[in-house]
Write a structure and sequence with these properties.
The protein folds into two domains: 8-142, no CATH class; 175-227. The chain has a three-stranded antiparallel β-sheet with strand order 1-2-3. The chain is built from ten helices and three strands, in the order ααααααααβββαα. A hairpin with a 4-residue loop joins strand 2 (152-161) and strand 3. It is extended, with a radius of gyration of 22 Å. By secondary structure, it is mainly α. The protein has helices spanning 8-16, 18-22, 26-39, 46-62, 70-81, 83-93, 98-105, 111-133, 173-187, 196-227, and strands spanning 138-148, 152-161, 166-171.
């Protein structure tokens, strides 16, 4: 299999596929990392690797690990390095530890960074990706509305996997409602018999959403009047 492609995007696509990754030899993994560094004009240097560590450490220390979200990871890396390099780093996080061992061995990445990323950060990334790729393996336990220091009011959801592994993440209320509306639209497309009870449940959800929407509007109206 030809590993080194002509451009960064194709490199990332090859590297991101877990199945193909398992076929790569250790030398290929190391060469691939160096090739990406070269294609990005040396942006992934030892200094940059250290800065990545600082970004991860800041995120891990500032919040409990179990409520750090995949969006937090994406934003922190993308703001600093851009989309392409962020995608490459994420691809490192979702792959087995062999790649890190090889990079440590060849002194491309240090042991401290390996331990921090793979033990603390990679597991979270894998869980989040699994939640969205294989939702049938997870069951929603609870969703609570909580006050977050940096995000304001958020929904904190707890999930359990089929093997009893627990996982939590946070989402903004507007994102949560967009998701619910999306589900409602998709559910209405399902053809099942009998439909009466099913449609009644969908209508009930819609009514509840409208009620919440009206409550929010009324609250905002009262606030704006009080300011005057």
């Amino acid at each position: 299999m030809k590993i080194l492609k002509k451009n960064l995007n194709s490199l990332i696509k090859v590297y991101y596929k877990g199945v193909e990754f398992m076929e790569l030899k250790k030398n290929d993994v190391y060469n691939l990392f160096l090739e990406v560094s070269k294609k990005t004009k040396g942006k992934i240097s030892k200094k940059e690797i250290f800065e990545i560590e600082q970004i991860l450490e800041k995120n891990l220390v500032s919040k409990p690990l179990n409520i750090l979200t995949f969006n937090d990871i994406n934003r922190a890396l993308e703001v600093k390095y851009g989309v392409d390099i962020k995608n490459f780093i994420i691809s490192l996080l979702i792959n087995p530890p062999e790649v890190f061992n090889e990079l440590v061995k060849r002194k491309v990445i240090n042991r401290k960074l390996f331990a921090r990323i793979y033990k603390n950060f990679s597991k979270l990334t894998i869980d989040t990706k699994s939640l969205f790729d294989y939702p049938e393996r997870w069951r929603l336990l609870t969703t609570d509305l909580v006050q977050s220091k940096d995000k304001g009011v958020v929904f904190r959801s707890r999930f359990v996997r089929y093997d009893n592994h627990m996982f939590s993440f946070e989402s903004l209320p507007q994102d949560y409602f967009v998701l619910i509306n999306h589900f409602i639209k998709r559910l209405s497309e399902i053809e099942v018999e009998p439909m009466d009870k099913f449609l009644a449940e969908i209508n009930n959800i819609k009514n509840n959403l409208e009620m919440v929407q009206n409550q929010i509007k009324n609250r905002q109206s009262v606030k704006s009047k009080s300011k005057k």
